[in-house]
């Protein structure tokens, strides 16, 4: 395949990862990053990454440890600011100043450590920092309404738990991840960023999250970027994949047009080239 062969050669040019060839040029984009660079002192974590995310699209980001995947997500979620490069949210040039700023634009992130309060109930977690309070002078929490709304929201997206009163610590890893995704979706996310949502999960638990992501996709209105490790799972879920190596995008393709074998070949070739070049 031409593209895979030329991809590594293009990687250093800073113009890699052009918008996907199979999307219509005027298709609406939820997000676009142009030549994003992030330096931490002497470390260049992102070295000119360009990416696009179409509305309703699921983009899978693959790559080795230290490739810059989490750094990219942290820029897209307003946690870090890029050293250089431009970000467009819904077509508007935007500098994301903070996580709250990104959130106000409908960008939500589910981090790997989840940030759920384990001793609190499912429904309370769903409304963490957004609690509903009753009217009146005492501003008491409206548990009844939060319970009902949480149950409704989980029901809407097909997440089944025995009771929304259960503390989160009683749930499995997969169920917890599902609650974290549900919470993000419930807060009207338009763009959902997931950093290794299936890490450390067994097949059954991973299946739960995969099904949830597929249902969210079918419902429409949500664009997703997910960092993944497993190539086969990524190709199953994502519409498109992007491979990152050493702070750059070295390959990008529609999932239907690539394969696990091809991705492994690209990674191996890069690895051999790096060793031959004596890098690191
Ligand atoms: N806050 C930071 N300060 C300094 N260096 C950092 C910081 N965050 C990330 N880095 C460095 O940037 C590079 C990319 O890290 P990043 O966490 O984005 O990789 P990753 O692709 O998510 O890796 P993994 O698969 O292990 O999660 C690494 O060399 C890392 O050490
Ligand atoms: Mg990471």
TrEMBL record:
Residues 1-22 have a biased composition (Low complexity). The keyword Metal-binding does not apply. Residues 31-271 form the ABC transporter domain. The keyword ATP-binding applies. GO terms for molecular function: ATP binding; ATP hydrolysis activity. Residues 1-25 are annotated as: Disordered. Keywords: ATP-binding, Cell inner membrane, Cell membrane, Membrane, Nucleotide-binding, Repeat, Sugar transport, Transport. It comes from the Bacteria. Pfam families: ABC_tran. PANTHER family: CARBOHYDRATE TRANSPORT ATP-BINDING PROTEIN MG119-RELATED, SUGAR ABC TRANSPORTER ATP-BINDING PROTEIN. This is Sugar ABC transporter ATP-binding protein. It comes from Paraburkholderia antibiotica.
């Amino acid at each position: 395949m031409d593209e895979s062969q030329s991809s590594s050669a293009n990687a250093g040019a800073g113009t890699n990862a052009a918008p996907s060839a199979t999307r219509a040029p005027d298709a609406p984009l939820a997000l676009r990053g142009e030549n994003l660079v992030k330096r931490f002192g002497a470390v260049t974590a992102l070295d000119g990454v360009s990416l696009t995310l179409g509305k309703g699209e699921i983009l899978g980001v693959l790559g080795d440890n230290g490739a810059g995947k989490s750094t990219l997500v942290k820029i897209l979620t307003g946690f870090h600011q890029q050293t250089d490069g431009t970000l467009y949210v819904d077509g508007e040039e935007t500098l994301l100043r903070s996580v709250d700023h990104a959130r106000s634009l409908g960008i939500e992130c589910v981090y790997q450590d989840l940030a759920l309060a384990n001793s609190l109930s499912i429904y309370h977690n769903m409304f963490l920092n957004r609690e509903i309070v009753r009217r009146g002078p005492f501003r008491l929490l409206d548990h009844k309404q939060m319970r009902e709304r949480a149950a409704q929201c989980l029901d809407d997206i097909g997440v089944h738990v025995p009771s929304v009163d259960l503390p989160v610590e009683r749930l499995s890893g997969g169920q917890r991840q599902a609650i974290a995704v549900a919470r993000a979706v419930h807060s009207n996310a338009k763009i959902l960023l997931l950093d290794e949502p299936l890490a450390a999960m067994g097949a059954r638990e991973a299946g739960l999250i995969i099904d949830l992501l597929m249902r969210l996709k079918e419902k429409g209105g949500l664009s997703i970027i997910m960092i993944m490790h497993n190539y086969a799972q990524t190709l199953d879920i994502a519409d498109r994949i992007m491979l990152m190596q050493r702070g750059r995008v070295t390959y990008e393709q529609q999932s239907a047009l690539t394969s696990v074998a091809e991705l492994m070949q690209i990674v191996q070739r890069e690895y051999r080239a790096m060793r031959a070049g004596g890098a690191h």
